[in-house]
TrEMBL record:
<dbReference type="InterPro" id="IPR011009">
    <property type="entry name" value="Kinase-like_dom_sf"/>
</dbReference>
<dbReference type="GO" id="GO:0016301">
    <property type="term" value="F:kinase activity"/>
</dbReference>
<keyword id="KW-0418">Kinase</keyword>
<protein>
    <submittedName>
        <fullName>Fructosamine-3-kinase</fullName>
    </submittedName>
</protein>
<comment type="similarity">
    <text>Belongs to the fructosamine kinase family.</text>
</comment>
<dbReference type="InterPro" id="IPR016477">
    <property type="entry name" value="Fructo-/Ketosamine-3-kinase"/>
</dbReference>
<dbReference type="Pfam" id="PF03881">
    <property type="entry name" value="Fructosamin_kin"/>
</dbReference>
<keyword id="KW-0808">Transferase</keyword>
Length: 289
């Protein structure tokens, strides 16, 4: 695969050698490259909207700073270069996930969630997959979650989704204060923590877990945990370690978990189609009927 011209143009002062194509997920293309002799990971998207990769790079930097400060043992890749249509990161040599690395991940995520802001949300528009994750900050978590996470999907209209689904979603947004009546702190969230967004890498400190592809904002830490359970891939050692460091209210979380998973299912429904519709409808019925 040949590198796109816009990458060469942005990095024209460097010696760039394309190596091997690798998976860039559903959104981007990716490959390993040598930049001035150093192996790096390059991902790009020719039709990237403004700030698409800037948003990701800012999230990675925020997470890296938090994990370095807390000395969590979790690695976050260094941002080497960012352009409007590409992101260049350090290359991380992948390893195999084990119960031990999952335990370190659980402990580290608990420490990350202890990094808190004064308000919920984010200052700038961001992205979750190819979709915009709207900007907005609020001292009230329930209001932020309703207006900036769930309500934007109402704009898809009944031409794409069944009218009843949208009516239930609208009702849910109105009732959100009754459903999210606890008082969480504005924790630093990864924001898209499914099993494909954590890996195990070889570093100078040994084999450690690493976090990639974030959608960083500040919110209820249960949102990250709910995403880990949505598609699986996180063993019991992860949850046990998390709760040893930063215990959750299990009874309350069990009731709120589907509400937080709803956001990610709506994202998948919008991106990948009706195969996620049944799961969305089941959660809406649970809370609205």
């Amino acid at each position: 695969m040949r590198l796109p011209d816009f990458v060469y143009e942005h990095l024209k002062e460097h010696d760039i050698v394309a190596e091997h194509s690798i998976s860039g997920g559903d959104i981007c293309e990716a490959m390993t490259v040598l930049v001035d002799g150093e192996r790096c990971f390059l991902k790009w998207r020719a039709d990237a909207p403004p700030r698409f990769f800037t948003w990701e790079s800012e999230g990675l930097i925020t997470l890296k700073n938090a994990h370095n400060t807390k000395q969590t043992g979790i690695h976050v890749p260094e941002v080497k270069q960012v352009g409007e249509k590409f992101l260049l990161l350090e290359w991380m040599e992948p390893g195999s996930k084990t119960a031990t690395t999952a335990e370190v991940l659980g402990q580290g995520l608990a420490l990350q969630h202890q990094c808190v802001a004064s308000v919920f949300g984010q200052k700038d528009d961001g992205f979750i997959g190819r979709l915009t994750q709207p900007k907005g900050q609020d001292e009230d978590w329930a209001s932020l979650y309703a207006t900036k996470r769930l309500a934007p999907f109402l704009s898809f209209g009944d031409s794409l989704w069944p009218c009843q689904r949208l009516q239930r979603l609208e009702t849910l947004c109105v009732r959100i204060n009754d459903l999210l009546d606890h008082k969480p702190l504005p924790s630093l969230l990864h924001g898209d923590l499914w099993s494909g967004n954590w890996m195990v890498v070889q570093t100078a400190n040994g084999i450690v877990p690493a976090l990639i592809d974030p959608a960083v904002s500040y919110g209820d830490r249960e949102q990250d945990l709910a995403m880990t359970e949505l598609f699986g891939g996180f063993p019991s050692s992860f949850y046990n370690a998390y709760n040893e460091v930063y215990p959750i209210d299990h009874a309350g979380y069990e009731e709120r978990r589907p509400l937080y998973q709803l956001y990610y299912l709506l994202v998948h429904l919008a991106l990948f189609g009706e195969s996620y519709g049944t799961s969305v409808d089941q959660i809406l019925k649970h809370y609205v009927e």
